[in-house]
Amino acid sequence: MPSLRFHIRFPENKIKEPVIYQIGHEYKVVTNVRRADVRETSGWMDVELTGEIDEIERAVVGLRGKGVLVDPIELNVVE
Amino acid sequence: MAKMKALVCRECGKEYPTTAIHVCELCFGPLEVKYNYDEIKKTISRKKIEAGPHSMWRYHDLLPVEGAVDHAIIGPHAGFTPMVRTKNLGAYLGLDELYIKNDTVNHPTLSFKDRVVSVALTRARELGFDTVACASTGNLANSVAAHAAAAGMQCYVFIPGDLEAAKVLGNLIYRPNVVEVEGNYDDVNRLCSEIAGEHRWAFVNINIRPYYAEGSKTLAFETVEQLGWRAPDQAVIPMASGSLLTKIKKGLHEMQALGLVDNVRTKINGAQAEGCSPIATAYKEGRDFFRPVKPKTIAKSLAIGNPADGYYALKATAETGGAMDMVSDEEVVEGIKLLAQTEGIFAETAGGVTIGVLQKLVKQGHIKKTDVTVAYITGNGLKTQEAVVDAVGRPVRIQPSLVNFQQTFKMGKHGQGDA
């Protein structure tokens, strides 16, 4: 089953929300956090999402809808 | 024994074979090339380098490719650009020894990207790829398309659909497949990441990135050699992803580790435009992490709002006692004009950023009069003429008569001024 890797960034007002847990319940994707740094005013996570590609893409839209920033693990590649 | 030991995770240190991978499977940290310095040390020397080709490939021993110098290199003429000791600009800024590392004349596409792309495509072909790709809005696309054409490789360039078409027309001459993605920069980023995972293509700044980025080290190698085998006191470097800055530091320290130069104490300074300054802003605010931004600046070649190496650039600057700063778009234009009018070098907007920040660091006292200083000018002004078109005045219009010419310029009959 396909897996895609993302860098997710939490603005200050979203840090306490269980966003990753919610996404795992709302979409048919398995979430796997590999690295994270969460502080009082900011936070980020490197996460793998596994599932059908369509479902991963829906989960990404869902994450963005919750107010977190989602980028590919490589961050900006348009140079 | 091979000169490349492994790819190593910059976060957890896990090692991988030197294939087309770029992310640690364990912690998702970025990978970079680890060399077998003990082996390299046995053969490398100043003499050997000086006898090498008149290009960045004279530092072949420290680049992540396996082929011999005289064959299999794609982009054999890249690099070894002039190191200009400034007369007028140095005097204007009050610096005794200011140099411009002039990549406005890099071969073949007039930007420092020819260095990284030359390494990336050479390595890509070694790894068996016949198709190369990149996501780009300018210099990178130019360089990938040109090198791919020369190497006979298939080439795909991805651009956001909302980009002005004129920005990419220059690439079409090389006949790459230019793919306009319906969406913005974020959509292109995500799609390219997915394509790189799905197709056996060499995406130069995705799955080939560990090799690609190493090409930037050659700016450091050339700096040391062209300064007479010494490292500068100060380096002023433009930042987009931040990779160039980290690799110049790596290059300087590799040369020291190999005994090619002593006493590297170079302060690594970073320059960004105010309209896209996530790294310099983090530095100014004393943070070790950056906040992504939506770019809004004329310095398009530096407009990366979520820079992959931002964290590492902050670290490199902190470790060397360097500084970072940013300049407004107006200051960028002034910087371009100042460099052109003092040294005759026409830089693109990134060069204006570098010169603008150089001025600031001198004024702040961070760069001192006697410091040996190198400013890195990474692209040619002919690429971004629109940035200065309203700032350079108009031609003087005259009638086709000698009298009218002399009157206009207030000259006497033999060219002397009348005033």
Largest interface: A-B, 22 and 42 residues
Question: Which sequence of SSEs, written as H and E, runs from N to C of chain A?
Answer: EHEEHE
Largest sheet properties of chain A? 4 strands, antiparallel
Total of DSSP H or I helical runs spanning 4+ residues of chain B: 15
Strand order of the largest sheet of chain A: 2-3-1-4
Category from helices, strands and their pairing of chain A: alpha+beta
| Fraction of residues in H or I helices of chain B | 25-40%
Describe the structure.
The complex is a heterodimer of chains A (79) and B (419). With 79 residues, chain A is of the alpha+beta class. Chain A has a domain at 1-38. Chain A has two helices and four strands. In chain A, strands 2-3-1-4 form a four-stranded antiparallel beta sheet, with helices on one face. In chain A, β2 (30-38) and β3 (43-50) form a beta hairpin. Chain B folds into three domains: 1-43; 83-109 and 213-387, 3-Layer(aba) Sandwich (Rossmann fold); 128-207, 3-Layer(aba) Sandwich (Rossmann fold), CATH 3.40.50. Chain B has helices at 37-43, 46-50, 88-93, 113-126, 139-151, 166-172, 185-198, 209-212, 217-226, 243-257, 278-284, 310-320, 329-343, 349-363, 402-408, and strands at residues 4-9, 15-16, 31-35, 83-85, 97-102, 131-135, 154-160, 177-181, 202-203, 234-238, 267-273, 324-327, 372-377. In chain B, α10 (243-257) packs across α12. Chains A and B meet through β1, β2, β3 and β4 of A and β7 and α7 of B.
